[in-house]
Amino acid sequence: IVHWNTPLLLKKQLKLLHKSELKIIIIDNASSKSVSWITNEFPRVRLIENKINRGFAFACNQGIVNGIGKWFLFLNPDVEITPKQIEKMIEYAENEIKEWQKFIKKCKKQ
Description:
Number of helices: 4
Shape: elongated
Low-confidence stretches: none
Largest sheet: 3 strands, parallel
Mean pLDDT: 94
Strand order of the largest sheet: 1-2-3
Order of helices and strands: EHEHEHH
Structural class: mainly alpha
Radius of gyration: 17 Å
Helix content: 40-55%
Strand content: 5-15%
Distance between the termini: 44 Å
């Protein structure tokens, strides 16, 4: 989650996501509003606090470098999404990959 000066929205989002098995990384882009509460209230969440705001794409790249997993989802704090919705997105994407693999295999046979 890329964050900049919207701690109330971020907290709302974390309340939706923190009980899941998802690995959550917050990249704070040099906010003037403190996010120090994250480590106390959501100990499983990894917080990276940038001293300089280099933009959304830079923060996303930091998330990739510091993340582990097969799937990555980049969010702004104003997104309201549940773990169940994320699981459905992943399930859909994995099914699509399988369908494309079948299609490619079929094309190669022709």
